[in-house]
# Entry
Amino acid sequence: MGIVVRQSIKGSIMNYLGVLVGFITTFFIVTKYLTTEEVGLTRVLVDASILLSGLAQLGTSTSAMRYYPYFKDEKERDHGFFGWSVIIPFVGFVIFSILFFIFKQPIENYFSQNSELFVDYIYFVIPMSFFMMYLLVFETNSNLLMRIVVPKFIREVGIRLMTLVVYLLYAFDVINLNGMVISLCLTYGIATLFNIIYLFSLKKVSFKIQPSFVTKWLRKDFIFYTLFLIATSLAGNLIPVLNTFFVSGKLGLAVAGVNTIAVYIASMVEIPYRSLAAISRPHISQGMKDNNMLEVNTMTKNVSLHQFLASTFIFFLIWINVDLIYNIIPNGNVYDEAKFVVLILSVVKVINTSLNVGATVLSYSKYYYYSLLFTVVLTITAIYMNIKLIPIWGMEGAAMASLISYIVYYTLLLTFINWKIKVSPLSMREVYTLIIILTLFAIDWLLQNYISKYIISLFDAELVGRIFDSVIRTSALSVLGIVIIYKSKISKQVNNIIDKFLSMLKLI
# Structure
């Protein structure tokens, strides 16, 4: 776990730098200078592009993790493995672009009533999805070489910085709405170019394919696995963007814009997951290939625990400050109607980031084809619950649809992998962590009800008092939580990090 933890920490630093830029962009530029409808437009465009790019990859990012151990050979430049990873997505992009144009009219009909502005810009989905596709392909290549920091910087910081510039240009009337949409597409193109340059700089990569190296068994297994991934992608890539399409299509782009800010706040919960999942997958893949189930089970539990530790702690910090967040951002009174969407989706993020390692184990096992069944169940449940709950509860209904769907999905998935593979991400250490977090929530409730009002009353400006109170409560509870986790010895890795930090303080 050493290299996993180190790379994860570095990747998380990049993620949080990106969050800082994204925080400024989303909360102080987007909410101030863009209308809720324009916010909804950018969200739907990005999510539609994510869906198309995810399908067009033909499962490359997943199959690369599964089959790279068979190609891995530094002397032979991995037998042209990376060449295959470039060709296959291009074929997929051509196929799904054709399908996009075939079904364009039904798509436009669905959005035309409540989200007409999206219909005006629907063609921009094609170039944006192309850049997104290869951005992920080259990032996956770097992950396989255990180099996640620079690609993370490009994705999490670089794209957000360029996006910030685009929004500022729009805010000060340097570009119009057309120029903003075009520029947003170009940011992904520039990021993809940087990823290509970095990958070549590693000097371990060859894009010259070697068809003769691919044995009959490997070719047959790869084709079957790829066909399986295509079927899985039809459902799996739809889930992350399903709420956006339902909310924008049924409630309109303006409501989707309000929902977008809530989704962004909740997405902070999963930031550590992006790094730890990326760096742990190759190790899990290697362990499954070597049939070292003891190592896989240990790593699965460790990954799940550290994801749960990080995600619940971030969720705690977000929720105890959610009112302050909406008070600070421009037009916060417009966006705070989605406050409970933040709560529900944050819980969804905690569940997904903590338990998704189970899906990773299944995808690299000989039972990988069962994941299609679970994904179909997830998709059908999500679609059904969205249709039922959005008319009743609106945005909150869409969030509840996600929560119910993932509870059903992970209940079935974890039961299966524990039965068939004898691997489980769950452990009692997560129960202890949950008790600690719930205790911190209880303490915060007491502080807000009996101390916060007094602290706020000391200041003439209420907002200043709220900020001061938030800083005091957040700092005190964070330190208390870290001390309890350290003393409880829930995680040896976390304790080692804290010990190193304390040693540095002593030296200073």
In short: The two ends are 28 Å apart (CA to CA). The chain has a mean pLDDT of 85. The longest helix spans residues 2-33.
